[in-house]
Amino acid sequence: MPSSISGSKPKAIAHAEALAAICALLILMFEIASVYLLNHRSATYARISRQYGEALVIRPAGAGEPTSVLMVGNSLLLHGVQLDRLEEMTSSRMRIYPIFLEATGYYDWLYALHGLFLRGARPQVVVLGVGVNYFLENGVRQDYAPMLFFNARDTLAVASDLQLDRTATSNLLLAHSSTFWDTRSAIRMQVLNHMVPHLENLFSLVNQRPAVPEGREFAEMSVPRLQRLRELCEANGARLILVVPPTLDSEDPVSRMAAAAQAAGVEVSVPVDPAGLTAKFYQPDGMHLNPDGAVIFTSALAKDLREKVRAHETLAAQK
């Protein structure tokens, strides 16, 4: 009997080793397949990685050159800003480097900016526009952002800021280090989109936007976040401008965010009064501007940014 038990141990070890080898092979296959799909099938990844790479080479403008401006934000700017039109209307005053990633908010861009500055980006002006709801949300985008925007230390800092438990922290670290883990949701959505046409549009109608805090909680959340962003930008030689894009029926949150920015010492731009845009200027979700709304917003943003950059140049010349 003892010899039978002892003889089964090598078999059990061999089976365990074989199972571990199969698991390792599957992980490697998933990782390779994810990298391939990311590089050949993801328009979002192609856009963001290109924009991020271009932003890394931003340097302060020389004498007589347009001011270098890093413009970051989520889908509200992606759909609301017509970049070619904006660049054409502001080219005499500024050179704009955009990075727009959907479903991002305060924490995504706080650590994205930290990473960009750490890697050598030196814009003179940082323009941030994510909308009130997402600026005050306690969370980060679970795909693309951990892999593209965060280093390992920042990933742990995000987890600490959000008070994530060990499981959520592990998921965030895996998303930072593994292409498969980071993009698994995006890959699943691509597969479902092939199976169910226009599924993404259905999700955009079903998904609820983050709630806006009421009363004192609004200022208690927004002002420290704005101060932290301002201090980060100033420490790296950049001036922060907060752009508050409109959404349908957002007059009160937009005015409160503008007041919070002033309290935090952050320059604020509200290019368009939300009260002046009816539902016909928005997509069906009531959040994103349609092409007609984007024309209005882009023109107003260009005018406002030109004035603010001109004022900054005049102030700098007087020093």
Envelope shape? globular
Give the number of DSSP strands.
Answer: 5
- Count of distinct structural domains: 2
The SS-based structural class is: alpha/beta
Q: State mean pLDDT (0 to 100 scale).
A: 87
| CATH architecture descriptor of the largest domain | 3-Layer(aba) Sandwich
* Main sheet attributes: strand count, strand direction, barrel closure: 5 strands, parallel
Order of helices and strands: HHEHHEHEHHHHHHHEHEH
Give the proportion of residues in helices: 55-70%
| Rg from Cα | 23 Å
Q: What is the CATH C level class of the largest domain, in words?
A: Alpha Beta
Uncertain parts: none
How would you sum up this structure, described in words?
- With 319 residues, this protein is of the alpha/beta class.
- It folds into two domains: 1-41; 49-318, 3-Layer(aba) Sandwich (Rossmann fold), CATH 3.40.50.
- Helices cover 61% and strands 8% of the residues.
- It contains 14 helices and five strands.
- It has helices at 2-41, 43-55, 75-80, 83-90, 106-118, 132-135, 145-148, 152-161, 166-177, 179-195, 199-206, 216-235, 251-263, 291-318; strands at residues 67-73, 94-100, 125-129, 239-243, 267-269.
- The protein has a five-stranded parallel β-sheet.
- Helix 8 packs antiparallel against helix 9 (166-177) and helix 9 (166-177) packs across helix 10.
- The protein is globular, with a radius of gyration of 23 Å.
- The termini are far apart.
